[in-house]
Amino acid sequence: MKLLTKFILFVLIIHLVTLVLSFIIFRENKIFFIASEILILISIIISWRLYKELLQPLQTLMHGLEAIKER
Q1: What is the pLDDT of residues 29-65, one digit of tens each?
Q2: Angle, to 10 degrees, between the axis of helix 3-28 and the axis of helix 30-70?
Q3: Contact partners, residue 14, CB within 8 Å, separation at least 6
């Protein structure tokens, strides 16, 4: 399994668990639910940026490998 696939699965599982817990909070307190949803959205944005930062050096390496193969 590739590193990027592992990262995506990890982030997906974390956010799904957080969403389920957020739904449980929804039954108890609506304000905490809204706050938790905002935090989940912020976390998704940070995860997406981290994914892009992880992907960019790998793409540079792949372009370098292609350039070496083509000479």
Answers
A1: 888 888 888 988 898 899 889 888 888 888 888 888 8
A2: 170
A3: 43
Q: What is the pTM of this model?
A: 0.67
Q: Which residue has the tokens 């997406």?
A: 48
Dist. CA 32–CA 25, nearest whole Å? 7
Two structure tokens written together for 36: 């938790």
- Using H for helix, E for strand and C for coil, what is the string for the chain? CCHHHHHHHHHHHHHHHHHHHHHHHHHHCHHHHHHHHHHHHHHHHHHHHHHHHHHHHHHHHHHHHHHHHHC
